[in-house]
């Protein structure tokens, strides 16, 4: 069986060593290159072939987002433009739905958190090797299970509490020491997140979820 060729781009040598040992315990997986920053990775994987240089044959790149001197997201976007057939799995300490969506929009095949169990990484690599889609990350699944009001920002939650206490936007702004337009924008965003179009619907939502102040 032809080995599934993997390259590692992470600025921590200990992390790369851990990936290599973990992946090469698996039959058919082979780490063929390691890079501590984006410049040698770009030279090795992307630059056009010449008599002296030919881009390395790699099936999958494990990419960290925190690279010295360069954004991992920017590197990912450029890589997808120049070498679209190369799959990229982002392995990062940043485990938020927002970061995950940024990675996917930039062209990543999937994301794994560095805090995940090592089997999650191996499973993700195996799925990509077989041409399968990756399931949602644990962070994304947790976010989907949260109630809409649990996704509000701190400011949005504060505005919501003032509105539920009977304050107008102007009164809430005065109590919070914010501009009326700022509070109005927070109100617009929280209504969008809660999928309510009026004060009556907002109160119904609040009663249904036990949010109304005693």
Q: Shape from CA axes?
A: elongated
CATH class of the largest domain: Alpha Beta
Indicate how many domains the architecture comprises. 2
**What is the CATH homology-level superfamily of the largest domain?**
Response regulator
Radius of gyration: 23 Å
| Unreliable sequence segments | none
User: What is the structural class?
Assistant: alpha/beta
Give the % helix: 40-55%
CATH architecture group name of the largest domain: 3-Layer(aba) Sandwich
Q: Could you tell me how far the N terminus lies from the C terminus, measured between alpha carbons in angstroms?
A: 67 Å
Strand residue content: 5-15%
Oligomeric state of shown chains? single chain
Question: What's the helix-strand series?
Answer: EHEHEEEHEHEHHHHHH
